[in-house]
């Protein structure tokens, strides 16, 4: 390219200077930072712009021999390259001498540098790789020692960028910095590349590189025919340019390529480039395999799509097929043939089918309407199952699935007997209330099996959105019907047994009140015309048998509780747990682990010890966990010790379960100590109460034990009643005048509350005042008024079970609870001595004697 071309480019960039200015050194780079290094930088800039003036040379990119004949050379001789050049930093990857490619740089930053290069006769620029260094943090120390001198061609400036074509010439080595600020100016040398082209090892490396490049070109679509022709200009006799070319076409990282560029020995350079080339080939082959797999999959899908479309056209022409819209309409109509759809629902379905038949299949409304019809036609309109109102069969199912719970079973049998005369048991809402693990959910399944009905269960615990019950509006994206509609679709009958688990744990939020939404579901007067928001048509829920479960009644809203028939499930006594473990839990665990009773045997005494020492809760969930623990440890013994059988008895039980969690509770005795009975959501419990005299300095009354407001009121009433009737019960009338009394309920960290401890607290205070200790196992419950009347309490069954569990067989109960006690099963009343009290005097007569 001639100097005139550069002058044209310079004019385009408004950089053209007249001859006088070109020959001056006024535009030399500033040397404010380098005055100590070189006092003649201006002269250096002038020499850099003039370039070498050697005999036999001509300015430009071509060489001339002494006879005047022009010689085209890819790389000019080193004598033609200037000793001072301007530097341009690049960031992505180094530039190699064998490269010719365009470069784009920032105009504002490097315009002055390129103007000065354009004013030099040799138009040579030094390109150096500086890696990830930013423009603001770039320092002359970040430049590498080795770079590439390039020839600048076709210099153009557009907007904020400068474009030019760089032709790699030769490596240079920086020997001296003349300007450490842009425009960077350095003195360089052009190191020789030691190579023996005739060496066999060098020729072998060169041939390997050529073969690698030829192998890479066909499998990488980025390399075109021009690059193949360019490769033909290299031969094994030119190992240096060949190696640089091979490195330049790889996608290796910048630091790796800079290492190659800085290696002057051609043989060492080829040793570094060959692995990079091999890696490039492997990546290209893998990329090709991935592309082939993707293309094959796409071709298969396209072929299948075209074949299906052709098949549709052929079938349509022959009149033997329908489009998607007609198929959907026919599918929905076919579903309705076996159903007895109410007239109002059928009218809505017909309207939606007519709308579906005119909508485009690709429209959003088509999808919404289709989903709506899919739900409407999937429901079991008019389909019911025949109830098996057979009481012997129901008793057999209940006895097979459950041990104990005799009163609960009788209550369910009564419920089914009533349905026998009515003809069905639909429209009823049964509420099973009891502690965790007593079998509420499994009883619901047994009821469904006894009736021969489909069973569907969902938990409402923690539910905060009423749309879970009544569905979403169809206008919302992702709208769905409520759980009840989903239950009908799954069970495919209109009269299933639907269990609403954990109904006492319903929540409320800004999204609505699910408990209020359940009123329409569970009210027999309203659920005949239940309206789901999504379906927007009336449904009949009166044939459904609803079974709800709860641990406690306190958190169930009154209007909802009023619509349910309550059946209480109390905790199990030790005998019932023993039967449940033998007949249900232990066989189930062995079967689940594919073991037999012959290989793992558990004695009845050991099983009873598990119940007494490790699982005293009201239910059997903890008992099942402990038995499972025994099975796991027994399996380890069978494998590691290669034993044929494992026998668990009372003697070796602690090897499997460790020390017992519960010890045999000793009933507390002494002056002022009385055992009470309490009810909790986990079942019944014994509750000892202690009263003690702290000092005689002053009258006072102190309460501890984390008591709730109700129990604090009971304690104050007990104190007042005792204080006013000391002489009546044979105690010192002046005892409390100077006594500071402390009333304590043990396990102080556990919150306690409830209206059933008044009698027990009064007895403890009177025992303290009379100095009379209760010397026999005796427990009591009941609330006391200020006039001495004993009021009834709840949870009699649970309290009797708790007393038996603690081996207390003498009880004092309110006279108003006599009926509750008489309704208990005989096995709970067996061996019990129960006194019924109308007034506190009856209690005192039993405790202290007449």
UniProtKB/TrEMBL annotation:
Pfam families: AAA, Lon_C, Lon_lid, LON_substr_bdg. Its EC number is 3.4.21.53. Induction: By heat shock. It catalyses: Hydrolysis of proteins in presence of ATP. Its main location: cytoplasm. One of its GO terms (molecular function) is ATP binding. Residues 1-15, 40-52, 60-69 have a biased composition (Basic and acidic residues). This is Lon protease. It comes from Vreelandella sedimenti. The lineage of its organism: Bacteria, Pseudomonadati, Pseudomonadota, Gammaproteobacteria, Oceanospirillales.
């Amino acid at each position: 390219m001639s100097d005139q071309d550069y002058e044209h480019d310079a004019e385009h960039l408004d950089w053209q200077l007249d001859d006088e200015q070109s020959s001056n050194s006024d535009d030399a780079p500033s040397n404010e930072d380098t005055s100590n290094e070189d006092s003649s930088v201006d002269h250096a800039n002038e020499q850099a712009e003039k370039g070498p003036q050697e005999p036999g040379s001509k300015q430009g990119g071509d060489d001339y021999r002494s006879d005047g004949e022009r010689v085209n050379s890819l790389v000019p001789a080193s004598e033609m390259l200037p000793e001072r050049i301007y530097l341009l930093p690049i960031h992505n990857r180094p530039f190699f001498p064998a490269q010719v490619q365009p470069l784009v740089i920032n105009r504002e930053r490097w315009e002055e540098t390129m103007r000065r290069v354009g004013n030099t006769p040799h138009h040579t620029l030094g390109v150096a790789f500086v890696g990830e260094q930013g423009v603001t943090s770039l320092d002359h120390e970040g430049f590498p020692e080795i770079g590439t001198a390039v020839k600048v061609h076709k210099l153009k400036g557009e907007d904020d960028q400068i474009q030019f074509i760089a032709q790699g010439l030769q490596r240079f080595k920086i020997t001296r910095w003349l300007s450490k600020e842009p425009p960077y100016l350095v003195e360089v040398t052009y190191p020789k590349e030691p190579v023996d082209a005739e060496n066999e090892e060098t020729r072998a490396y060169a041939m390997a590189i050529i073969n690698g490049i030829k192998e890479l070109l066909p499998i990488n679509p980025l390399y075109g025919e021009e690059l193949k022709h360019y490769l033909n200009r290299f031969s094994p006799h030119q190992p240096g340019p060949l190696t640089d070319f091979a490195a330049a076409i790889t996608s290796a990282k910048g630091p790796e390529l800079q290492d190659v560029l800085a290696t002057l020995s051609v043989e060492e350079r080829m040793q570094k480039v060959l692995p990079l080339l091999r890696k490039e080939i492997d990546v290209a082959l893998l990329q090709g395999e991935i592309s082939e797999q993707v293309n094959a999959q796409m071709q298969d899908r396209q072929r299948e799509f075209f074949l299906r479309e052709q098949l549709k056209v052929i079938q349509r022409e022959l009149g033997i097929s329908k489009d998607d819209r007609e198929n959907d309409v026919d599918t929905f109509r076919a579903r309705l043939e076996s159903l007895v759809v109410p007239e109002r629902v059928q009218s809505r379905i017909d309207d939606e089918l007519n709308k579906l038949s005119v909508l485009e299949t690709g429209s959003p409304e088509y999808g919404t309407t289709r989903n709506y019809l899919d739900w409407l036609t999937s429901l079991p309109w008019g389909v019911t199952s025949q109830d098996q109102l057979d009481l012997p069969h129901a008793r057999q199912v209940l006895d097979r699935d459950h041990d104990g719970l005799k009163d609960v079973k009788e209550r369910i049998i009564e419920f089914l007997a009533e349905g026998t005369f009515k003809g069905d048991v639909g429209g009823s809402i049964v509420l099973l209330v009891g502690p965790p693990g007593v079998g509420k959910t499994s009883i619901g399944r047994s009821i469904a099996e006894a009736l021969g009905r489909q069973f569907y269960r969902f938990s409402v615990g923690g539910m905060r959105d009423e749309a879970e019950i009544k569905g979403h509006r169809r206008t919302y994206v992702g709208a769905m019907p409520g759980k009840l509609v989903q239950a009908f679709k799954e069970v495919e009958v209109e009269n299933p047994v639907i269990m609403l688990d954990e109904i006492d744990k319903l929540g409320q939020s800004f999204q609505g009140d699910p408990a209020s939404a359940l009123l329409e579901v569970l009210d027999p007067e309203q659920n005949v015309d239940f309206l789901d928001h999504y379906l927007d048509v009336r449904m009949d829920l009166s044939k459904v048998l609803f079974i709800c479960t709860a641990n406690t009644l306190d958190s169930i809203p009154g209007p909802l509780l009023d619509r349910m028939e309550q059946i209480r499930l109390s905790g199990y006594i030790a005998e019932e747990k023993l039967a449940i473990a033998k007949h249900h839990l232990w066989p189930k665990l062995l079967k689940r682990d594919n073991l037999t009773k012959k290989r793992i045997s558990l004695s009845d005494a050991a099983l009873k010890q598990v119940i007494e020492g490790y699982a005293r809760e009201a239910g059997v969930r903890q008992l099942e966990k402990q038995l499972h623990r025994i099975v796991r440890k027994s399996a380890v013994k069978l494998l590691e010790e290669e034993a044929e059988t494992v026998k668990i008895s009372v003697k070796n039980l602690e090897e499997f379960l460790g020390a017992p969690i519960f010890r045999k509770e000793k009933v507390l005795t002494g002056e002022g100590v009385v055992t009470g009975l309490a009810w909790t959501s986990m079942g019944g419990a014994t509750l000892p109460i202690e009263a003690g005299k702290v000092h005689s300095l002053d009258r006072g009354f102190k309460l501890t034990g984390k008591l709730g407001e109700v129990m604090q009121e009971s304690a104050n009433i007990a104190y007042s009643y005792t204080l006013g009737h000391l002489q009546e019960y044979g105690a010192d009338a002046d005892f409390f005048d100077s006594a500071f009394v402390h009333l304590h309920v043990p396990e102080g960290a556990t919150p306690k509350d409830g209206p059933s401890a008044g009698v027990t607290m009064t007895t403890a205070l009177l025992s303290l005042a009379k100095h009379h200790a209760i010397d026999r196992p005796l427990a009591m419950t009941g609330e006391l008024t200020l006039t001495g009347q004993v009021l009834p309490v709840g949870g009699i069954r649970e309290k009797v079970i708790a007393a038996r569990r603690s081996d207390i067989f003498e009880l004092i109960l309110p006279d108003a609870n006599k009926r509750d006690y008489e309704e208990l099963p005989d096995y709970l009343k067996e061996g019990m001595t129960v006194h019924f009290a109308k007034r506190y005097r009856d209690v005192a007569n039993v405790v202290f004697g007449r």
